[in-house]
Design goal:
Blueprint lengths: L5 H5 L7 H15 L9 H15 L2 H14 L8 H31 L2 H9 L3
Helix pairs in contact: 2-3, 3-5, 4-5
């Protein structure tokens, strides 16, 4: 499975802090919520930002994602390739599990009334 670029989805730098990631997610979530944004792709983009946030907001999952991304996309291979290959599939399962949870939450949030969603987001501070 080819990884999505979660940093690009959230419009943040790869060195962004957890706080910057959270702020970017909140801004995009408010812009892309289906009750507010009626564009054709808003629902899909809303799911993607939730997926990206679920992975990048967790330091352990973010490290795993970065390693997978570097390996898959940038073709940066670690010094001990054999050991890395064993860990790679475990990391990939872990990141995919988080991404799926994020997408599931995104589906739930996208069905919420925007006012209710806005109240939920305001509690995320």
């Amino acid at each position: 499975m080819l990884l999505k670029d979660y940093y690009k989805i959230l419009k943040v730098n790869k060195n962004a802090s957890t706080l910057e990631i959270k702020k970017a997610f909140r801004i995009l979530a408010k812009q892309l919520h289906p009750d507010v944004n009626k564009s054709e792709n808003a629902h899909i983009e809303f799911l993607e930002i939730n997926e990206a946030y679920k992975v990048l907001n967790n330091p352990v999952k973010r490290i795993q994602y970065d390693k997978l991304y570097n390996y898959q996309i940038l073709k940066i291979t670690p010094k001990n390739q054999k050991r890395y290959n064993k860990r790679h599939s475990k990391w990939e399962r872990h990141v995919n599990k988080s991404a799926n949870k994020g997408e599931k939450k995104g589906r739930k949030y996208s069905k919420e009334n925007y006012t209710k969603f806005q109240k939920r987001v305001s509690k995320w501070d």
